[in-house]
Here is the input.
Amino acid sequence: YNLLHLDTLTILSETPPALLDNASQSYNTVLDVFFNLPESTLIQVPCNTLRTYKKDARWKPFADRYVDACITLIDNIYYLATDTGAVVIGYESAPSEDLSFQNDVTFGNATLPVVAIADPCFIQTKITSVSFPQNVASIGKCAFFGCSLLTSLTLPENIAIIAGKAFAHDSLIDGKLSLPNSLSYIGEKAFYNLLSLDTLDI
Here is the structure.
């Protein structure tokens, strides 16, 4: 409702999702769900599903906004192909314990390095540790917000951007955390409320 500044909406499902309200009553069209969505907003759908979305009566009102996005699922993690590399954009089922990512992802004939974690990918999941590919240069806003079981964190060597609240309220992260020299931007409250952290090296 009133998503006035939304640039892109990414849909992971290969079939158009049902449109339900809190009472499990069906909405007639996507317009009833995304009210006042800007005309400039692009809607990314998985590869080779454009025709399916455009023909579905519930999703047809946005037919002129769909973009064929190259999205792939590997080991429960969704990756999106972009001009700069592969971006982690979500998961199929909520991950727990140790979380890791592919170093490179193949989309058709192209193999791309994983370069970013989108926001807010893993908010409040039950992961206990996370391992980043070394090519990751950006971690999105609230990407790991409220991961209350996360106990250890090692940032990738090439990280340049950590957005706001990326690791906020991860209160069990302990020991020493070092910020690499490559880091050029830290968003507001990126490491807020890390109560168990002993040392932060900048």
The chain has a mean pLDDT of 87. The radius of gyration is 18 Å. The first strand starts at residue 8 and ends at 10. Residues 160 and 183 are 4 Å apart (CA to CA).
